[in-house]
Amino acid sequence: MKKRAFPKTKKLIVANWKMNPESFKEAKKIFDLLRKKKFNANKIVTVICPPYLFENELAKSYRSNKIKFGFQDVHFENDEKSTGEISTEMAKNSKVEYVLVGHSERRQIGETNEVISKKIKKCLDEKITPILCIGEDERHENGDYLNLIKEQIIESLSDIPKTRVHDVVIAYEPVWAVGKGKNSMDSHELHQMTIFIKKILVSLYGKKIAMELPILYGGSVDADNALELIKQGQVDGLLVGRSSLNSHVFGDILKNLS
Ligand code: PEP
């Protein structure tokens, strides 16, 4: 099997800054504070996904390998007629190693599994690791949400053969746990979900490959719940929104996991 994008012995912690902060000055301040934080880079791969506008400038002046960069989205084609879009080639040339694909906030504005599948393929073509975001909006009592998760995985990976899937990362983000005023998922329930997701991956790619694919959790992660979510939830890392904009909180998350 080909070498994976990051070793299973490490945890992958991804910061999604979304459409924040408002200025480059502020972005630099958050980043500079974070890079001074002490954490064990032998145990953690840290990826910051700022807005495109700031990523290039932050990456240009940053020389250490302790923090990697990602984009929050990318276009599924390299087509000069795509006004306002960013291509995977541009990502590659901006030192980007990871891209969030199919975040719930993009699915909410109409992004389909079909488009997501194309984006994953494009990322892999450029040797960028796609982080495929999946997750249900709500928990139906009859368990329908499980079918939705299954459909998201199968359709989003429909074009990705066994030989290429080892570079894909899955981020499970139940939408009801993401954002302001929400609570993170219970870590035992998370463990059940990781088992469910692994079962689907086994049915698609076989046990050996499926068990190697990293699964992250996202949704109201903070310095107090990060370790428990990873340990009890049996995930390979975290996707962090709001808490990643506070360098002290994000630094504590990294320190607690070290
Ligand atoms: C996210 O937007 O991916 C996310 C996990 O947000 P938060 O941590 O703020 O819930």
Summarize the structure.
With 258 residues, the protein is an alpha/beta fold. It contains ten helices and eight strands.
Key words describing this protein structure:
258 residues, 8 strands, eight-stranded parallel beta barrel, TIM Barrel, alpha/beta, binds phosphoenolpyruvate
Plain-language structure description:
The chain has a single domain (11-257), classed as TIM Barrel. The longest helix is centred in the C-terminal third of the chain and has 19 residues, at 187-205. It contains 10 helices and 8 strands. An 8-stranded parallel β-barrel has the order 1-2-3-4-5-6-7-8, surrounded by 6 helices. The chain has helices spanning 24-35, 52-60, 88-93, 104-107, 113-125, 144-156, 187-205, 207-212, 226-233, 247-257; strands at 11-16, 44-49, 67-71, 96-101, 129-134, 169-172, 215-218, 237-240. Helix 5 runs parallel beside helix 6 (144-156) and helix 6 crosses helix 7 (187-205). The protein is an alpha/beta fold. The mean pLDDT is 94.
Highest-level CATH class: Alpha Beta
Which spans of ≥5 residues are poorly predicted at pLDDT below 50?
Answer: none
Strand content bin: 15-25%
* Tally of helical segments: 10
Number of domains: 1
> Would you identify the CATH H-level superfamily?
Aldolase class I
The pLDDT mean sits at: 94
Distance between the termini: 28 Å
Percentage of residues assigned to helices: 25-40%
The rough form would be described as: globular
Largest sheet: 8 strands, parallel, barrel
Structural class per helix/strand content?
Answer: alpha/beta
Q: Work out the number of β strands.
A: 8
Rg on CA atoms, Å: 17 Å
Bound molecules: phosphoenolpyruvate
Architecture in CATH? Alpha-Beta Barrel
Major sheet: arrangement of strands: 1-2-3-4-5-6-7-8
